[in-house]
Specification:
Helices cover 28% and strands 24% of the residues. With 162 residues, the chain is an alpha/beta fold. An 8-stranded mixed sheet has the order 1-2-3-4-5-6-7-8. The longest helix has 14 residues.
């Protein structure tokens, strides 16, 4: 079961018991709070589950069944006011920022979800460069995955990039 960790007038943040990357957990909580305030009514921080045979996988990730992302573990499940569900993957990088980090984050993130949040802290990366990288990925026939939403995360706020 998920427990509430934050309540806002616009929405609530929940977290499941489970395995989380310790270096990302504070970012996950901050991002979930931002999403609850600006995008979704309910935001769930999702655990890593090592096997789809785990009975918790089907319970937590049931919305992925029948999609290309079944067997994956994105970081967030967002439920909006209409009840629509959106799974989002958060991608960070090992500092210092290198030019290849953005491409790698988009590639890795798109394996988990078509909606991705990329960590842009400690980088001077510009929105135009992010959009150009997304267009390059989508034009590349070898890439072969959709990218529907991309937000950049500066350590405090999210900015819609795509």
């Amino acid at each position: 079961m998920a427990k509430i960790i934050a309540r806002f007038p616009e929405g609530d943040v929940y977290i499941y018991d489970g395995d989380y990357n310790e270096k990302d957990i504070d970012d996950l909580k901050n991002i979930a709070s931002w999403i609850a305030k600006h995008i979704g009514r309910r935001v769930y921080i999702l655990p890593r589950i090592s096997s789809i045979k785990d009975p918790n996988y089907d319970y937590i990730f049931s919305g992925l069944k029948g999609t290309r992302y079944y067997r994956k573990c994105p970081d967030f499940k967002v439920v909006n006011q209409r009840g629509d569900v959106l799974f989002i993957e958060y991608e960070s990088f090992t500092r210092p920022f290198k030019p290849s980090n953005l491409s790698d984050m988009l590639r890795r993130g798109s394996l988990q979800s078509d909606s991705i949040i990329i960590d842009t802290r400690d980088s001077s990366i510009h929105s135009n460069h992010i959009r150009r990288q997304i267009m390059n990925k989508l034009r590349d026939p070898k890439f072969g995955r959709p990218i529907t939403n991309v937000w950049s995360y500066d350590g405090k706020n999210l900015k819609k990039e795509w």
